[in-house]
C-alpha cells in the first residue's frame, strides 16, 4: 500500500486564466482552505501527477506554487492544525465508482 501524506499547496499566479486552471486542478486534489491555499492528502503517484499537470500551466518566470510536505497522513489533518479564528472544517469526500 502506498503511503499517503498531508501537503499544504499555496500558489501566487499572476494571470487570471492560469490562476483559474490551477484552482480547478487543486479543487480535485484537496480542500480549499484559504484564498490561495489547499490542504491535500496524496500518495506519491498522485503528487507526481499533480506536479506534472501544474507544470504545464504555470508560467515559470511569473508564477509560484509552494508544496509543503506535512508528513504521513496517519491522523486526520484537522487534529494536527492550530487555527486562530474560524476553525478548519475539512470537506467530506466520497468515493464514486
Q: What does this entry show, briefly?
A:
With 97 residues, this protein is an alpha+beta fold. The chain is built from two helices and four strands; from the N terminus they run βαββαβ.
Describe this structure in words.
There is one protein chain. By secondary structure, this protein is α+β, with helices and mostly antiparallel strands. The protein has a single domain, classed as Alpha-Beta Plaits (2-Layer Sandwich), CATH 3.30.70. Helices cover 27% and strands 31% of the residues. It contains 2 helices and 4 strands. The chain has a 4-stranded antiparallel sheet. Strand 2 and strand 3 form a beta hairpin. Helix 1 runs antiparallel to helix 2. 14% of the residues are buried.
Characteristic terms for this protein:
alpha+beta, Alpha-Beta Plaits, four-stranded antiparallel β-sheet, 4 strands, 31% strand
Tally of separate helices: 2
Under the CATH scheme, which architecture would be assigned? 2-Layer Sandwich
Broad shape:
globular
CATH third-tier fold name: Alpha-Beta Plaits
**Number of β-strand runs:** 4
Mean pLDDT: 88
- Poorly predicted ranges: none
Amino acid at each position: 500500500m502506498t503511503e499517503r501524506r498531508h501537503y499544504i499547496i499555496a500558489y501566487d499566479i499572476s494571470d487570471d486564466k492560469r490562476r483559474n486552471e490551477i484552482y480547478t486542478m487543486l479543487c480535485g486534489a484537496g480542500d480549499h482552505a484559504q484564498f490561495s491555499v489547499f490542504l491535500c492528502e496524496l500518495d506519491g503517484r498522485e503528487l507526481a501527477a499533480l506536479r506534472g499537470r501544474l507544470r504545464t500551466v504555470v508560467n515559470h518566470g511569473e508564477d509560484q506554487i509552494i508544496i509543503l510536505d506535512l508528513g504521513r497522513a496517519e491522523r486526520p489533518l484537522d487534529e494536527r492544525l492550530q487555527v486562530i479564528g474560524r476553525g478548519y472544517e475539512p470537506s467530506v469526500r466520497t468515493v464514486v465508482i
